[in-house]
Each structure stands twice: as structure tokens, then as C-alpha cells.
Amino acid sequence: MALVDVIMPQMGESIAEGTISKWHKKVGDKIAKDETLLEISTDKVDSEIPAPAAGVVAELLFQETTTVGVNTVIARINTDVNATVSAVAPLPLPVASKAAPVTESTPAVAVSAPQPSVSSGTLVDVIMPQMGESIAEGTITKWHKKIGDKIAKDETLLEISTDKVDSEIPAPAAGVLAEILFPEQTTVGVNTVIAKIATGAGVIVSAPETAPNPAPTVETVSAQQSITVTQQVIHEPVPGGRFYSPLVLNIARTEGVSMSELESIPGTGSNGRVSKNDILTYVREKKSGTLASPSQKIAPPSYSSPKPAAPITYTAGRVDLIKMDTMRKAIAEHMVRSKHTSAHVGSLSEADLTTIVKFREKNKAAFEKREGFNLTYTPFFLDAVVKAIKDFPMLNSSVDGDTIIVRKDINLGVAVALENGLIVPVIKNAEQKNLAGIARSLNDLANRARSKKLMPDEVTGGTFTVTNPGGYGNLYGFPIINQPQVAILGVGAIKKRPVVIDDAIAIRSMVYISMSYDHRIIDGALGGMFMQKVVYYLENFDVMQAV
Amino acid sequence: MAHITYIEAISQGLWEEMERDSSVFLLGEDIGLFGGAFKVTKGFLQHFGEDRVIDTVLAETAILGAATGAAVVGMRPVAEMQFADFVTTGFSQLVNNSASIHYRWHLPCPMVVRLPSGAGIHGGPFHSRNPEAWFFHQPGLKIVAPATPYDAKGLIKAAIRDSNPVVYLEHKRLYRHIKGEVPDTEYIVEIGKGDIKRSGNDVSIITYGSMVHMALEAADVVQNEYGISVEVIDLRSLMPLDTELIFQSVRKTGKVLIAHEDNITGGIGGEIAALISDQCFQYLDAPVKRIGAIDTPTPYCPTLEEFFLPNTKKVIAALQELAAF
After folding, report:
1. Distance, in angstroms, between B284 CA and closest chain A CA?
2. Quick one: which of A57, A299, A399, B54 has the fewest CB in 10 Å?
3. What pLDDT does B190 receive?
4. CA–CA distance, A437 with A374 (Å, rounded to integer)
5. B285 at the A interface (CB within 8 A)?
6. Do A247 and B285 count as a contact with CB atoms less than 8 A apart?
């Protein structure tokens, strides 16, 4: 028989749980696809949850008024039309859920997965987590446990890799690993059940002869999707966090401009706000038919790595073939896309770092003793960059069509080299941190970047990036802008050099600072002034400050 | 048309009304023999005699009390406070007595209190007040604040002919700095009517008094340099307010800057902003902004005074901010 899991949907980004307010069906009832199965209530909305598939209700796992975490399986539907389910029948375990489209006439299909046998207990699903808002899938890179292994709650069960971060996934419950539904290197959609853990006392597991490879075609339920649709019907369109003045809303209402149209109008006001003129222009163009409809808009070009014109030839045995991992592919895509997006222009400057070098020498021992980590030069550069951004906020912006989004939060990305790539954790609201605060954030993020412990939020939302081409002793580099930012600043190696000061030659600790910036919105004058400010703040570092 | 100064316009208006109506008389400190601290009433004593141009004791409460009594018995007194700041010592006469005569006795109280007001003349804390907000809060008083010679003359005549106590704010810095055309023929400017001093589409400035001139200068600059089209509404009368004119302008532009020289907190700009948000909410395309002096006593030091007061530059910056919103 084929069982489809019904899971507690996530009714909003910040919603962690929902309360089952009413079951519309009882065990044994027939249910059509999209027929209401239950009602739930969350912090934000009350909602009716439709059945993800047609069939017979096989199990209701929680009683009414129970509050359960999102993505928990709350019911199962038997899509086998001939199914007869007794209300108290325990679910044969383990069973791979199946959500293939089922028609009334389809004969029941038995899912034949290599199944370990687990004698009793409840099965807890392990799902592919959503590692960031825009992440739709993840690749299973390594299973830390095999079927039959005991596992503690929060013990690492597997490692996954996504476009943004690599991460270790802990077990959601203690028990015995009952099923592994996908082998390593499989890429699966978020919220897909990827493993099951048998919990409860007296769980006895006999490991199967072979690992389940390849995994049976198991997909969790399309419940998530159908629920999302339902949710959209329930809600008034939400204006995407964008602010509309009373006048703009008034004009929209009078002129019959829908909320979704309004959201599509590019704003020329502050922070991309749609001004009176913007909406009046839109209305005028709409009336005169000169408005480009969304379908007429040019599709964004695809920025995958270009294929070479001629096939690359090689002799087998004389080359090593290395399959790019997720991170490498992401870096490749991102770098090419950036070059396609921004008109890169560069400037190079140098700063006399002698004051900072002396300051660091004087304070580093006390700092390390107090903070437990080494005071590097990077925080000094970050601090100077933050100050210079405050003077020239345009460097802290993004380009959206013909709108420049100047950001007020300074979220500094700092490139951290990893064994096989790099990652750019972000120091959020660096403008609110002093030098020591920046140093602490940087140390924490860099450590966790190297140990793959970064959260998705910590590698997104950057507004300006600093990279360190001097890390291996090189004088300077020509970085590529980290989209959708508009500038990236590279710090070279700090070296003692003879320099001329007031017609005398002195030995000073010098550093080259290079910056790539987006000439679409930052001209050489602004870029140059900004860099000189960075230099100024470095050279005029306040040695009286505490660190 | 005569091209005259703001102070000449006030003098002319007073003179003409005294010629026209024998119940009009003047009283105040040093207004007779000396001709007034600012010479508004120079030559009046010689022409109208000491029964109608009365040099008083140095006591504002006596001046305003006498004026109120005279108004109640049918005269039309025009009382001069040497500086608007000094009206505080006669405050009770004005707000408790004059303002409530009609309410209590059903009698008219046709009196004018002239207040030479305003800063920007390095007068320090005692000679720079903009006292309109105190009286704005008091039901029973009318308040006018002309910015041009035309309005100064038209409004002093209207104030004298009005049956209510009228507070007449004359800005000291405009006295001899501002010149303008005034008709040779008789005219008055109706109390309660504002004036569009400049027509525009992008931002409205609601203002009065000395700020009208800064608003007009700023409007020129932002039009020429940034292409921002500014409408300047000169309220002329603060009580009653010409709300219809204000609302019309706001409905047209959707963006409002209220500018007055008085300090911001508790200034009448707050009341105007509240009226706009109440009556024009769905027409607003930006927050209602105010500009005024900062909340300190008026500094004596010219540099500090300049920092303290609103000026053309500050108006330009506010206009740019609003236009960019």
C-alpha cells in the first residue's frame, strides 16, 4: 500500500508550530485530493489544510488542540483505493511514503525499498532542511550513520551541501536510524523526507543486508505546495514590505492598480519608494498602452559557465577528472554572473599602516589574554571601511534596474578561504560595532566558516565585501564584486617599504588597497574619494582607543 | 503704486485709519514724542495730538488693560508693545480679559495689539520672541503676521476695523529690509485669507512672516538647480487659518514643509501638520515636515543665532529631502 504523509505546513517564515484545531476526517474516511482534511491555527493565520492526495485516511497522529512543530507528519493517507484501514491498526513500519499522482484506477503499487525491520516504536522523519530563504534543494554529502545505528538527539546524522552553505544536520530525535531514503551525492528538494528514525523504548532494528542504494523513488507529499496555494487565497496580498504613501495607495485605488501591479512599479523615491510621479507615470503608460507588460520583459540571461567553443580534448589516464562540488559550482556561477552584471572598474591605493602596526603590537598580548583569540589586522581594515561607508553611503548599495538601493545597514562580508573554496560570512550591522566588536564577530564567523557551522543567515545580506589578497603575501589583487553589492575592497600584504615623507626616506609599514566597484553607479571620482577615506581612517587611527 | 518699506506700510495703514475713524487711537511706550522705538509712529503725535497718541507708563498690563476698557466702551485702540517679548507682562489682560469679552458680555472688543517680533537682529533672548503660539492657543483672539508691505498695510487696516482683539505681528527684520508695491488707493487684506506667493507642483511650503522670503528664495534655488517646483503659501493670518487654501495646495503637491521662525516644539506648525494629516491623509506622498528655530532661548551671539534660526539653506535642504522621498 502507498502511504502519503501529511505534514504540519509552515504557515509563515517565523512560524515554528501549529495547533490542530479540527480534524475534518476520521481514520477510515475517504478523502479527495485537496479536500479539507483538517484545520490548523498558528500565531499568524488559521487555515484549512487540504489533503495532498486522494485516498483513505490511514492515520491521524495527533489529537485536536495538539500543538506540533512544522514539518512534523501529522497524518497519513493511504492512496491505495482498495485500502481498508481499521481505526486502531498500527502502521506497519517502516514504510516509505509515496506521493506519485494516483488516479482512481491505478492499481496499488507496493513500494519495494530494501527495508530494515524495526520491531516497534514511532518513526520520526528527517527532512532536508531549508538552509536559507532562496534555497530550494540540498545535496547529501555524507551520512554519518548507517541503518540500525543508534543516534542521540542533535547528534550529527548527515552532512549536506547547498548553494550557500555546507552544514551538518543533527538528528531530530533520539533512536535508531530506521531508513536512509537517499544515498550520498543525491540532491533532493527541501522538506523532502530523507531518513527516518525509530524512536521509543524497545526498538529493535535488524540492519538490512545492503544499504538502500539506489533509494526508492520516494518523495514526500505535495502537501506543502497545495497548502501554499491555499494560503495565498486566504491572505490579502501583502505589499512585500514596501512602503506606500497614503497618496500612492489612493491613486492605486482610484485608477484600479492592483497591489501586485503596484509592487511591480519601479520606485524612484528614497529606498525605492514608489512616488506620486512613479504611479502617475505608470497609470499614464498603462492607459496609453506603452507599458511593457511583465511578459514582454526581457528574461535575465543565464550565467552558467560558458561552454568552450571547441571541445576540450585529453587523453584518458593523462588527466585527473574532478567533479565540481556544490560550492565550486556556486562560486563559478556567481563570479561569471557578477562579471556579466557589473561594469567592473578598479582603483589601487596605498596606506601607511605604521601607526596601526605599532598599536597592534602594543595591545595584542593583552587582547589575546582577554578575548582568547589573536587580534589580526583585518578588523582594523573593516573598521576603516565602515567609517568610510558612512561618509559615502553610495558604496553600500545595490542596483535594481534603474533604481539604486542605498542601504543603511552596513553588513560587511569578509571572504574566508576554505580548504576547497571560499565563503563570505557577513558581519551584520558593523556600523554598530567598535573595533573589538568587529574583531569578535569576525573571529567567531571565520572559525565557524572553517568548521562548517555557519547559519544560512550569516552568509547572506552582505552590503559590502572585504577580501584579503595579501593573505599569502601578495601585494594586491583584483577582486570580483560580490553581487548584489557594488564594491569589493581587497587588502594586500603589509610590508615594510622605504617611503618618502617630507623629502626624507623612512621605513614604514605599507599596504596596498585595491577596490573593484560597479561603474554603473560609482564613478572613479566617488570610488577614489571613498578609498582615500579608507586610507585616511587607517593612517589616522586613534591610538587612544581601547581594544 | 508706491514702492515702500514694510515699516512705512504699517505707518501708512495706521495713519489712514486714524484719519478715517476718530475712534482709533494709539497707546504705548515712547510712541508719541519719541515716535516709537522703531519710529512706526513718528510724526503721529504732532498730527493727531496727545489725546490720540498716548505715551504710557512702562507697564504692559496697564496698556493692555486700558486698551481693553476703551474697546469695550466703543473706541478702537491700537496698543504697541515696544518688543513682542514684553507682552508677557500684560498677558493676563489679553488672554483672560480681552479674549473673553465677547463670550462673557456679548460686546465687541475692537482692539489691536502690535507686536514687533522676531529674531535675526542679534537681539538676544529678550528682544527676539515669536510669541504667536501663546495666543494661537487662546480662543477669542485673532492673529495676523504679514510678510510684505502690501499685506502689512492691508492687514493693519483690517485689524483696526475688526470687532475682535487682534494680535498684529510685525517682524522687526522686515521693517526696513523689505520693500514692495502698495496701491495708492484704499484697500484692505481680509483677515483669515492666505495668499499663494508662488505657485508650484512638487512641494508646498506653508509659512508666514519672515520665513515667506526665505521660502521664496529657496523655491527659486531648488527650481533652478534641481527642477523642484515649489508652491509657497503665505498664511498672512494665523487665526483664523485659511485651511481651505492649505488643503488645496497639499492636495495638489502631496508633500508639505511647514516653516516658521518660532521654535518647533509647540509651534503652530504642529497644529497645521495635524490638520493636514486629518483632512488630507490620502493625499500625502511624504511625511509632513516642519522647520523652525531650535528649542532654546534666542542666542545673542550672531554665529549662534544663525545656527538657531531657520534660514534659506535649511529650507533648501528640507525641500530636497522631501522631493527625494
Report:
1. 5
2. A299
3. 98
4. 13
5. yes
6. yes
Nearest in space to A335 (alpha carbons), one of A139, A132, A488? A488
On the question of pLDDT at A502 being above 90, the answer is no
Shortest CB distance from A270 goes to which of B254, B282, B325?
B325
Q: Would you say residue A289 has pLDDT above 80?
A: no
Domains recognised in chain B with CATH numbers: 2-182 (3.40.50.970), 195-324 (3.40.50.920)
Find the residue in B nearest to A249 (Cα): B282
Query: In chain A, whose CA is at the least distance from the CA of B281?
Result: A246
Best B282, B288, B289 residue to mutate vs chain A (most A CBs within 10 Å) = B282
Which cell goes with B225?
538647480
| DSSP three-state, residue A489 | strand
pLDDT of A307 over the 90 cut = no
- Average pLDDT on A292-319 reads 61
Write the Ramachandran bin of B52: left for phi over 0, alpha for psi from -120 to 50, otherwise beta. Answer: alpha
Residue B40 per-residue DSSP state: T
Residues B22-51 have pLDDT tens digits of 999 999 999 999 999 999 999 999 999 999
Nearest CB to A269; choose among B281, B283, B325: B325
Residues of A in contact with B288 (CB under 8 A): none
pLDDT digits (tens, 9 = 90+) for B267-281: 999 999 999 999 999
Q: Per-residue pLDDT tens for A51-82?
A: 888 888 988 988 888 888 888 899 999 887 65
Which residue of B281, B284, B325 is in closest CB contact with A273? Answer: B325
pLDDT digits (tens, 9 = 90+) for A391-404: 999 999 999 988 99
pLDDT band at residue A291 under the 50/70/90 scheme: low
Mutate to test the interface with B, among A242, A243, A244, A245 (most CBs of B within 10 A): A245
Q: According to the model, what pLDDT value does residue A13 have?
A: 67
**What are B93-119's pLDDT values in tens digits?**
999 999 999 999 999 999 999 999 999
Query: What residue of B is the nearest CA neighbor of A252?
Result: B282
| ipTM of the prediction greater than 0.85, yes or no | no
Asked if B200 reaches chain A (Cβ–Cβ under 8 Å), the answer is: no
The torsion region of residue B31 among left (phi > 0), alpha (psi -120 to 50) and beta comes to alpha
Asked if the Cβ–Cβ distance from A247 to B324 is below 8 Å, we say no
Distance CA A509, CA A514 (A): 17
Tell me whether B254 touches chain A (CB under 8 Å).
Answer: yes
Q: Which chain B residues are within 8 Å of A248, Cβ to Cβ?
A: 285
Section A409-415 average pLDDT: 95
* d(C-alpha A86, C-alpha A460), whole Å: 50
Amino acid found at A452: K
Q: Which residues of A does the annotation mark as catalytic? A: 519, 523
Domains of chain A, with CATH numbers?
A: 3-229 (no CATH), 240-292 (4.10.320.10), 326-539 (3.30.559.10)
- pLDDT > 70 in chain A, percent: 80
Give the pTM. 0.49
For chain A, the C-alpha Rg in angstroms (whole number) is: 29
Contacts of B285 in chain A (CB under 8 A): 245-248, 275-276
Query: Using a CB-CB distance cutoff of 8 angstroms, which residues of chain B are in contact with residue A275?
Result: 285, 325
DSSP string, A360-412: HHHHHHHHHHHHSS---SHHHHHHHHHHHHHH-GGGSEEEETTEEEE-SS--E
Question: Could you tell me where the DSSP H helices lie in B85-190?
Answer: 91-92, 101-105, 132-136, 149-161, 174-177
Residue A123 CB: number of other CB atoms within 10 A? 22
Contact criterion met (CB below 8 Å) for A22 and A37:
no
Exposed, middle or buried: residue A112 (CB in 10 Å: 0-12, 13-18, 19+)? exposed
**Chain A 257-276, residues with CB within 8 Å of chain B CB atoms:** 269-270, 273, 275-276
